[in-house]
Write a structure and sequence with these properties.
11 helices; 235 residues; Rossmann fold; five-stranded parallel β-sheet; 12% strand; globular; alpha/beta
């Protein structure tokens, strides 16, 4: 009896000496390193032209809500165009971010086309062609820097839903041409194209509330992030 009691005391002492973590383990969080590249939609400019949260910020939050530990770097720059290629070839800080990434999102090309549309509309087809050439090189460069990263590229929405039907009749085919060019470059590089035009068109008053500004509301950025998340989950 005494021997049995002594053994029980030893077992109890060992039990009490174990750390609480041995019995209270929660789910082990997966890790993802996410880098966002691109223009003001990445940087997070809001409908008032002010700094805010872009769709990558909301996408990073979705990862966190799904039990991921996220290392997130937002390299978005207001006004950026496909000279992003030069950045990727020369900026060692951006290169280092890309090399570490598991996931990369890209939104680029609109700023190559919009200024031309406003000043020399006849030259828009050439500007779109340039986007295709440069984006192809951008995606190849990303692949050279980090062949293991998953890359997702955004298609653009109509930024002028408040224009007249006559104006849209000439603008929408150009938007389609730009998106088709982006999708083609994405396909050539084995990456994933994420369309958004259909999403934003459903609730333009909510997602693009300022007729004088082409940037999305918080709701708009969140719906774009949701679309990226759906593509990522499928893959």
């Amino acid at each position: 009896m005494n021997r049995r009691f002594s053994i029980m005391l030893v077992v109890l002492a060992l039990f009490l000496s174990l750390p609480v973590s041995a019995f209270a383990k929660g789910p082990v969080k997966k890790q993802v390193t996410y880098v966002a590249l691109g223009d003001s939609l990445v940087a997070g400019i809001n409908p008032l032209g002010e700094d805010g949260l872009g769709y990558p910020d909301y996408l990073a939050s979705r990862f966190e809500q799904s039990q991921y530990k996220v290392n997130f770097t937002n390299e978005g720059v207001k006004g950026a165009n496909t000279e992003l290629l030069k950045v990727l070839l020369t900026d060692t800080s951006v290169q280092a971010s890309v090399q570490k990434a598991d996931l990369i999102t890209v939104t680029i090309g609109a700023n190559d086309v919009l200024p031309v549309l406003m000043t020399k509309p006849a030259e828009v087809p050439q500007a779109i062609q340039t986007v295709g050439v440069n984006l192809n090189l951008i995606l190849k460069t990303i692949d050279d820097l980090n062949p293991k990263a998953e890359v997702y590229v955004m298609g653009y929405y109509n930024p002028f839903p408040h224009y007249s039907e006559a104006q849209l009749a000439s603008i929408l085919p150009l938007l389609d041409a730009l998106n088709n060019t982006i999708a083609a470059a994405v396909g050539l590089n084995g990456d994933t194209y994420v369309p958004t035009a259909h999403l934003i068109a459903k609730h333009t008053d909510t997602y693009l509330p300022n007729p004088a500004n082409i940037h999305l509301s918080a709701d708009g950025y969140q719906i774009v992030a949701k679309e990226f998340w759906k593509s990522i989950k499928r893959n």
